[in-house]
Amino acid sequence: MVRDAAMRGFRAVLVERVDLGQGTSGRYHGLLHSGARYVVTDPVSARECADENAVLRRVAAGAIEATGGLFVTTPFDDPAYADGFLAACAASGVRAEEVDAAEALRREPRLHPGITRAFAVDDASLDIWLLLWANARSAERLGARILTYHWVTEVLRDGDAVAGVVCRDDRTGEQVRIEAGFTVNATGVWADELATMAGCRGIGVVPGRGIMIAMAHRLVNTVVNRCDLPGDGDILVPIRTVSVIGTTDTRAEDPDDLSIPAGEVQAMLDAGEQLVPGFRGARALHVWVGARPLVDPETDEDEVEDTHHLSRDLALIDHARRDGVRRFLTITGGKATTYRLMAELTMDAVCRQLGEARPCRTAEVPLDGFEEEGFLRLGDRLARQEDRLLDDQLVCECELVPRRAVRELVAREPRATLDDLRRALRVGMGPCQGGFCGLRATGILHEEGGAGAARASELLARFLAHRWSGIQPILSGDQMRQAVLDEWIAQGLLDVGHLPGAAEMDLDRA
Ligand SMILES: Cc1cc2nc3c(=O)[nH]c(=O)nc-3n(C[C@H](O)[C@H](O)[C@H](O)COP(=O)(O)OP(=O)(O)OC[C@H]3O[C@@H](n4cnc5c(N)ncnc54)[C@H](O)[C@@H]3O)c2cc1C
Q1: Which residue among 4, 28, 339 has the greatest number of ligand 1 atoms within 8 angstroms of its CB, and so is best to mutate?
Q2: What angle do CA 356, 362, 363 make, to 5 degrees?
Q3: Which residues line ligand 1 (CB under 6 A)?
Q4: Cα–Cα distance between 389 and 403 in angstroms, integer?
Q5: Rg of the chain (C-alpha set)
Q6: Measuring CA to CA, which residue among 83, 71, 66, 68 is closest to residue 36?
Q7: Which of 38, 329, 345, 486 is the most exposed place for a label (fewest CB within 10 A)?
Q8: What residues have CB less than 8 Å from 456, skipping those under 6 apart?
Q9: Greater confidence, 473 or 478?
Q10: What pTM does this model have?
Q11: Can the peptide bond before residue 241 be classed as cis, meaning omega within 30 degrees of 0?
């Protein structure tokens, strides 16, 4: 959104209460939808996904791995679904091509040998971090400001119009007042909160909670979907070095308090086993949870339990028409796949209301600033890194993060936390889950970022606690061994829990 606004020549400010991607976008499944998943249940979203899939391959290729996708009928699926699926793909203009089941098994030999039908689609994996940072950097180059760790606490009103926001800078404690000619509420699953702050009626966003588990290897190299009505654990996405099984879809009460029930973890592993026999024998690396912003004006939100059936369509709300509050729009719902379209439609509406003709160019102008081609493949990164190892050691061996990259980020942003380093550089995302690299990165924050001893130990303890919340529910096998080793290092050698600063910390917020 902020890039779109900046490209149209607006002086734009993005305000984010934590770090970019700390909301739902950083907790999603990693799939650039072809649209095929929704052709039967939600053809409007299917069409939007198909169109945006084609656009993003043109303008954001650096964040996409063109894995391709397969829909497969396993022995656990309704065999009658496949013909209707193919017809619905044709009706929605979503490409789907039947391939011989034997050919699908040749492509993906770990798939269940009992699959009877397979369809190739244009699914891909989308690295959200690369995409977010590229958008933010591009917007900044165009003069926009990105204010992270700024929490909107008040929406300013000037009569019947919104006139900006007041935020709390969580790093300094200061109040920051931003006056604006137009304000867009793009807070996803938190959209009701912001709308209410502006004096509007709530929007009725239903948080659709979903868990996902990253397995430590690429068990498949193609996005694999079950060819049946959308259900739990029916998609396996290969992304970077891992494959991610997901997801569940149930109503959450509070998007800031999302649980990972043990039963759902087991259900995901069982679902993985149905797609790839032996799945449970692989190493489960990390589990996480996010909440989809789902909007369905027809549904009484208090009655929703299972959120699979709620539309994935986007919702653009004109508060002037709905609530009599001018210069204020809400955009929510949608998918990561349709993020660009959501921004385009919103900024078109802003321009219409301001009476200015400023066309959107994000579908034509490619995002620049991605790393070199092949960055998504660990092998390519290793080849590049090997030449530099004598001058630039690795801080994180799992994700091949060099010391230089951490130092540069800390020099740019001395107040960075270890979770910021994880989101920006992937420190701690690999098999050791921060057990080794977390300590090294803390050393750099201490030596070069000016973090005093108390701050450095607080950052480390907080980071390890956050990593632990995604490891504890899946502890078994090799990951259990790794966790025990990490625990010995953190508690046995460093006594992390009793370092100065760590004891008093509030672990609730990243
Ligand atoms: C389990 C799961 C799996 C998914 N899988 C996929 C998938 O594979 N493919 C796909 O395309 N989509 C997927 N989605 C959907 C997709 O992730 C979301 O639609 C998308 O990320 C929402 O983006 P957003 O920018 O609207 O919301 P967010 O990313 O949540 O951004 C909103 C931001 O607003 C900030 N905010 C809130 N309140 C305030 C405040 N008071 N002050 C300042 N900032 C505030 C939040 O911190 C947050 O970062 C999935 C979603 C879930 C939950």
Answers
A1: 28
A2: 115
A3: 15-18, 22-25, 28-31, 33, 151-152, 186-190, 210, 212, 247, 290-293, 332, 334-337
A4: 10
A5: 23
A6: 71
A7: 345
A8: 442, 445, 446, 501
A9: 473
A10: 0.94
A11: no
